[in-house]
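This part of the workshop introduces the protein records we will be handling. A record pairs a protein's sequence with a compact description of its fold. Backbone structure tokens are a discrete shorthand for how the chain folds in space. The question running through the whole workshop is how a given chain folds. The record below serves as our worked example for the rest of this section.
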Amino acid sequence: MKLDKKEIMNRALNAMTINIGKAGINENVIEEIKRQFESNEILRIKFAKNVARDKDAYIDAIKEATRCQLVDVRGHVAVLYKRKP
């Protein structure tokens, strides 16, 4: 079953949120995101204001490492989706 963007965004309101702070993305953050995708299809990634200018690069790194899809970016929050097998 493929979810449409509107349904994913509605479900994202209650999704797990992972905060990315001044340290940015490292291997531990990627591993935590992978663990969360094992139990959740939708994750919200919230970027601190001081790293928000690099969020596009961080999102690309997360997408590459976890093979997820970017649904939407609003402000400092990205919504990611990975279908469960």
The chain has three helices and four strands.
